[in-house]
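To whoever is covering the structure queue this week,

Two jobs came back overnight. Logging them here so there's a record in the thread.

Job A:
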Amino acid sequence: MPEPAPDLTLLFSPRSIAVVGASTNVDSAGHDYVRSMREFGFAGPVYPINPKADEVAGYRAYPALEAVPGEVDLVISCIPSAGVLELIEQCKARRVRFLHLFTGRFSETGDAAAAALEREIEARAGAAGVRILGPNGMGVYHPAGGVSFRPDLPGDRGGVAMISQSGNNAVEVIARGHARGRALRHR
């Protein structure tokens, strides 16, 4: 009997999001992910995780994932690859179901040690019950749910869905679709 399809609802429509590696540097991905949730009107709590900041993009910042007061459905990782194994343990402790790894520098580098780290991350995440999107991926774009990987993308809510391995191709399709009146949606 085939295994049932996983429930990805909380990946595409999370009720709360934590950005680990959130940054006050407006030119960083760690800032863009947090700012995107504000720009797109994400209705749930957004928890920037940065031990050196009090706030990021208008949201109160927390020193660690364990300090977040509420449940977290989706964690977005903007930290170096060396910290991801520990992040998986934190996600396990918080019962986070989805971890999006914007983090890169794994097997795509061709480095054997980086590829081994990626395999270890996959194994630990699987054992912890944490599903991973990535690594080295832009993430979810679901304007109707207030979720985007960039704050400068159009917020139209449309009837076309897509999956892209390439972040650049995804941005192009989103922009060209918007220009032609064909906005995207996640399902």
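Job B:
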Amino acid sequence: MTDTMRSARLVGIRQMQIDRLPVTMPQAGEIQVRIEACGVCATDSRKYEIGVNDGHYPFNPGHEWLGEVSAIGSGVKGFRVGDRVYGDTYGGYADFATIPVDPIDWSRGPLLLPRDLDRRRAIFIEPLADCIHAVRDQARLEPGQKLVVIAAGVMGLKIIADAARLGCEVMAVEPLAPRQAAARTFGASLVTGPENWAEAAAGWTGGRGVDAVILTIGNPDLVMPCVRAARPGGRVVLFAGFGNRKEAVLDLNDIHYREIALIGSEWIGTPPNQRRHRYDEALDFLLDARVPFEDLVTSTCGFATLEQALVARQGFTGFKIMFEPERES
């Protein structure tokens, strides 16, 4: 094993540098992981563009990583050197990461992976678990119900896939033709552009309104149209951060009299409502080869092009960028 490693760290707003750091051996209750790949997440790009929430730098934002256990600290049970694991702790844009394994706080311990699971599928465990949480826990969808998903990006497609797996009918609203095609592949029964989607949803339900709408882009101007599209007693799920545009104009009477539930969806639930089992369900879903999750990885990068990928992620028209430490570019 080498004595040093590379780590891509944010050092300020729109500033990233590749640091050469010592490879630290795991302490008691920790494991060391050799990083195989890490998904480039929209939140990583947002931290790059507008800053780390607590202002603490330097900061390695990669948190959708998988790799191989390379060393184990004392007191750790359930892991062996050579195990393939997935985790969602920060530090994934590096050659190695040292990870705490806490038997009480599950979110601090990685998930064991099958050896033969394609990395292009494995990187989606955490974001797919988030999508399952949105569909099952926040939208509270049931088989046979109708869902509208606003935007068929990489998260919207996974929401579509899980809702379709549940037995729901899904309408996707998306302007880009390649993403419209992907929405159909991932299970949408109806796909429309953004121009007249509310009218299309009304016609789809015979004027009743849909059971739920999940908004996957941070556009506050779309919140009230989503509310109007829901049936009485329906649910509108905000599955996106809104950045600096965080205020929306709402018709509170419409929400009140029609008993619309307007609810957020963050990760797999904010403490103390986290749902560990959604990770296990995500892994099971990714093992189902009938859904082409690997096709969502449309670009890859290494250390040399990671900062460029974070910039490109803002206007990215593909689906997912995957970081691989061994890549030369």
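Note for Job B: The longest helix spans residues 125-138.

Please reply-all if you pick these up so we don't duplicate work.
Q.
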